[in-house]
Specification:
four-stranded parallel sheet; binds pyridoxal-5'-phosphate; 428 residues; Rossmann fold; alpha/beta
């Protein structure tokens, strides 16, 4: 299991936060330090994921696809089959149990595309906690269905209307809340980033993925795989699947970032290549960030909202620097090709995030021999991506369907008001 040195992983990590947040982070670190030595706590966590999220998730061989691509046998670790459709719920359930041990009753989170907010709202309902989710007002408009479900689940969703009205502003607002409320409130961080102990804590819960995989692949082929690929946004699904294999140097670990439209600034989210990102301190920790010439955080793009992040896990940055992790990237176009291949050869609709791991995995497998095995961590399912995918693969029937929906709404005057206006009325 990965261990930091005082919150650092090589030169990355740390805890760069306002004084007022220190006690809450130290309290969390102390509790986490204790609980991770406690086998009963891990058992309680595993049981919750089994009873509530369908764990263990299967390991699925891809016979038709492997034959088509020629090369290594391809396997999928099926995180898409979790409750709510992705690996995010693992981390959130773990933190929920931890909150109960801390004796706190309220959780807050920030969310961009809404997936982490939804997972947090689900956890809070299950464990009987109050949840407040901060979300940029523009993101709310883009991802309204997630907001709708969060509210039905009983969470309070607060639109953030400052700045660019997206994830960064939501994060600032969540931190402001936490600074005022940390005695009673836990901040549920969604990925293996942020100030210590979050990168280690999130990795700890997500490592359930790799622990299961190790058993499953041993049973299936009698040995360890030759390579594993995972997509890298903040880095939590990648760390989850990689961590139990770190000591096995024969297993190649490949992290796949969002290559986006091009290598131009603002067109991608590649933090692990020397020409695109630089070491910096932001959002409470030190890591590789996309930055412009003045050291301001840069803009990112990916066809997959979950990979669209300026920083990367300090653990991933360190593993890459030390040579244990190989970094690759997949362009939007390669991602759509991989998406289509998996659907048509295996009958699985992957998330666009996970399709980066597929693209990197297909490329690696084609260069391997037929007696080798490659596992792709399928972090989530693709239902949520229907609009993006429909745009990429246009069909006249789909355009007609959308037009009919728009016409229907226009015939009902009550629905004319925009989401923004309705939000304003709600908070007036
Ligand atoms: C959020 C998300 C990711 C990216 O987050 P990581 O912390 O890098 O794992 C990847 N895949 C899916 C399906 C997601 O929802």
């Amino acid at each position: 299991m990965i261990r930091s040195q005082n919150g650092m992983f090589g030169e990355f990590g740390g805890r760069f936060v306002p004084e007022i947040l220190l006690p809450a982070l130290l309290e969390l670190e102390e509790m986490f330090g204790r609980l991770r030595e406690d086998a009963d706590f891990w058992q309680e966590y595993v049981e919750l994921t089994q009873q509530f999220s369908g764990r263990p998730t299967p390991l699925t061989p891809c016979h038709r696809l492997s034959e088509h691509l020629g090369g290594a046998s391809i396997w999928l670790k099926r995180e898409d089959l979790n409750h709510s459709g992705a690996h995010k719920v693992n981390n959130v359930l773990g933190q929920g149990l931890l909150v109960k041990r801390l004796g706190k009753k309220r959780v807050i989170a920030e969310t961009g595309a809404g997936q982490h907010g939804l997972a947090t709202a689900i956890m809070a309902a299950r464990l009987g906690l109050d949840a407040t989710i901060y979300m940029g007002a523009d993101d709310i408009e883009r991802q309204y269905s997630n907001v709708f479900w969060m509210r039905q689940l009983g969470a309070t969703v607060v639109p953030v209307t400052t700045g660019a009205r997206t994830l960064k502003e939501a994060m600032d607002e969540a931190l402001r809340d936490w600074a005022a409320s940390c005695e009673t409130t836990h901040y549920v961080l969604g990925t293996a980033c942020g100030p210590a102990p979050f990168p280690e804590l999130v990795t700890y819960f997500q490592s359930v993925i790799g622990i299961e995989l190790k058993d499953q692949i041993q049973t299936a082929i009698g040995r360890m795989p030759d390579a594993i690929t995972a997509c890298v946004g903040g880095g939590s699904n990648a760390m989850g699947v990689f961590t139990p294999f770190l000591e096995q140097s024969e297993v190649k670990l490949i992290g796949v970032e969002a290559g986006g439209r091009s290598r131009d600034d603002g067109d991608h989210s590649i933090r692990l290549q020397p020409d695109t990102a630089e070491t910096g301190i932001a959002q409470g920790f030190k890591t590789l960030f996309l930055q412009n010439q003045d050291g301001q955080l840069g803009h990112t793009h990916s066809i997959a909202a979950g990979l669209d992040y300026v920083g990367v896990s300090p653990i991933i940055a360190h593993l890459h620097q030390s040579g244990r992790l190989t970094a690759d990237s997949a362009s939007d176009e390669q991602v759509l090709d991989a998406f289509k291949l998996l659907m048509q050869y295996e009958g699985i609709i992957p998330a666009l995030e996970s399709s980066h791991a597929l693209a990197g995995g297909f490329k690696a497998a084609a260069e391997m021999s037929a007696d080798q095995h490659l596992v792709i961590n399928l972090s989530g399912r693709g239902d949520k991506d229907i609009f993006n995918v429909a745009r990429a693969f246009p069909q006249p029937e789909w355009t007609a369907f959308l037009q009919r929906e728009i016409d229907r709404q226009n015939n009902e005057p009550a629905d004319q008001s925009s989401i923004a206006a309705a939000e304003e009325a709600r908070h007036a």
